[in-house]
Amino acid sequence: MIQAQSAPVAAPIRYDLRAMTPALLEPVRRWLALAHVTRWWPVECALRAINRHLGEPAIACLILAMNGMNGMNGRDMGYSQVYDPHRADGDAACHPYREEPRGARGIDLFIGEASHIGQGHGPRFIGRVLDHLFDAGAPCVLSDPSPLNVRSVAALRSAGFRSIGERDTGGHVLLMRCDSPRQRISP
Predict the structure, then answer these.
(1) Which of 4, 61, 64, 122 is a Cys-bridge partner for 18, taking CB atoms 3.0 to 4.6 Å apart?
(2) Which homologous superfamily is 6-179 in?
């Protein structure tokens, strides 16, 4: 689905994505305990889901590392998961975004290090993931933050997402979509 890669985004900072392993659960657990993350990703529920996702082939769990800023080399700073709303497991028939085109991908993410919030890293990280997914042929990418999560909504908009509308999917969300610039698809 998504390969761990590096790509320059804005000199001199480079954002690196790598596949998450069970050994990397500890930094994610630490981030999930921080107030700016816990508000949107409840710790115990999120850890159970991430553990489950590590074994699911249709979901890529990724760690974000940042290189080149103030001498940082490979400092882990966030988490993302990329999923296929048409995946073949048991809940594909009832996935709330199954009406999206085949090949669409969904993303969820957070910046774990509080010192990196509000610095413009979110939209650049999202842009990096979008570039990879569009290069791989995804016609569009979806995300569904809480409409109250103004930082996440702003980062997604800055990265090119548009609002589709609010929905209830087991929680109240704002469905957002970014279409690939490489192909034209219907809304």
Answers:
(1) 4
(2) Gcn5-related N-acetyltransferase (GNAT) (3.40.630.30)
